[in-house]
Amino acid sequence: MSQESTQTGTDRAKGSTDRRSFLAGLAAVSGTAAASQGAQAAGWGRWGRGTRTNVIMMIPDGSSRAHDTAARYLRAYRDDPDAYPENIPDVELAVDRADANGYMSHFPADPNSMVTDSAAAGTAIATGAKTYNGAISVDTDREPLPTILERAGEAGYATGLVSTTQLTHATPASFAAHVEDRGMQEEIARQFVDETDVDVFLGGDRSHFRADDRDDGEDLIGRAEEQNYAYVETASELESVSEGKVLGLFSQSGHLDYYLDRANDADNTQPGLRQMTERAIDLLETRSDEGFFLLVEGGRIDHASHGNDPATVPEQLEFDRALDAAMEYARDGPRRSETLTVSASDHDTGDLGLDYGANVAAIDDLEASQGTLTSAIDAASSTSKIASVLESQAGIDDLTDDELAALEEDPSALTGADGILNDRAGLVWGSGSHTGEDVPIYAAGEHAEQFTGSIDNTDLFEVFAGVLDLDGSRRPGRSTGRGRARGRDRGR
Ligand SMILES: [Zn+2]
């Protein structure tokens, strides 16, 4: 497959030579370019219709049905504590307003586990192929698999990657990088800048891009600016960008802060997930006449749930506000534009349960993640200072002498499934890691009905490819019933 034939299949003006040659290699794996050419020659699909098609994939990493339910209870309590819980049926989260919903399985192709990590799960959604835990869009033989984002970009769509984690973390990486181990974050950053043409990058961790911090001393931020990316580091800088390509890295190292820590920090400069989602949509809308593919990850639900931190509930609520923006765009976006918004967790984390003791008032009182609270307790020099930290930042004013003594001895008495925070919040946790049960999937807008019933994570790739007409076939007209995609040779 030559570079030329790849370009013949697309008519998009933008794009670098590096990217084209890289994608030509991928196309050779998948037959993409030939399929695109065939589509144009036959006059099928969306070419020439003058209508843009957009797909927004939202991933609340580690979320489950229990996370949604807890978020709904918290929303109801915040709306009117006096009317709670009778007002719970009045609450409509974005997930409650979905046009369709179903359940999704997510097991990996891994001899060591039936439970997926975010790398194998992201790869399954992005490429339609099961792989081993830790793999970033490579197959079980370590060969690269073309992703839905890359194929969309190759066909002329604008593309975006947004996450509250490190930009190079497993889930966003799975859509635009190919490495055999998710820990290769410097290489993932290099591939983002040198080998993709993603229009909008918004996430955390500058260190993997900065010459001063990288092992190889490469200045990836400078290289991105040479490719006409606007480089931004704060929420207000992000607001000031009105068009063009953007690389936004909003933390020096590590992930963006938890929602609670951002919301209660007067000096916070990081954007929220809803703001990033809205800005990405605004910017992508102007980038291509074809439309766009956007991946948005609420990545810190997973992290809070690994720690059995009740802060996962407000984190889920923030994700739902971002999903609300993406679903409203799917329903009421600009004319001559069709949008499909899908939200699916990649796996559950924490096995969260709500039993008789669940107390959303205690969750509503939280003004910090358990990590921030633990640091503050660690820094407190007396039991009275510890009591004052927990009263002011967690609304806990009834600590017993035994609890105070335990906290003074070891601040981690606050945290975990059996810690003081969960004692007050009444949340039940069955795990500190990922679990294997199906996760909910929600969809709104064009072709939302495809996401009804029981599906597998590898089915998303095929539906997105159909909606975006990447294989030159007609748009999907059948339901995505379990097994529809089974037994078919997908050429990879
Ligand atoms: Zn995780």
TrEMBL record:
Residue span of region Disordered: 472-492
Keyword annotations of the record: Hydrolase, Magnesium, Metal-binding, Phosphoprotein, Zinc
SUPFAM superfamilies hit by this protein: Alkaline phosphatase-like
Source organism superkingdom: Archaea
InterPro entries for this protein: Alkaline_phosphatase, Alkaline_phosphatase_AS, Alkaline_phosphatase_core_sf, TAT_signal
Cofactor requirements of the protein: Mg(2+); Zn(2+)
Presence of keyword Phosphoprotein: yes
Keyword Hydrolase found: yes
Biased composition (Basic residues): 475-485
Family assignment from sequence similarity: Belongs to the alkaline phosphatase family.
Protein name per the record: Alkaline phosphatase
Organism for this UniProt entry: Haloterrigena gelatinilytica
